[in-house]
User: What shape does this take?
Amino acid sequence: MNAFSDREITKVLNAMIGPTDAEGDSAVDAVRLDSLRTLIDVTNWCLDGLLYATKTRHRQEASMREIGETAFSALLEIKQWIQEVEEEEEQYGRP
Assistant: This one.
């Protein structure tokens, strides 16, 4: 059992990482850029965890297969989301 719920973990990460959106003030934005780099590192760690979990999706044991399939499904959802973001960017651009 997890020591924290997903909601609690999200709150902790949000507090620890901090905001990542640019403000237009160089001093503030330098801190935000560091926070963004931290967010990227955490995201990569999460993606690595999902990728590692997919290794069991072809196992015979139902519980192992379920974990692998769940992780693989999550990666496919992330892929779809990224494709939608790319399409929106191409269609509308960003000022």
About this structure: The chain has two domains: 1-49, 55-95. Residues 49 and 71 are 9 Å apart (CA to CA). DSSP finds three helices and no strands in the chain. The longest helix spans residues 62-92.
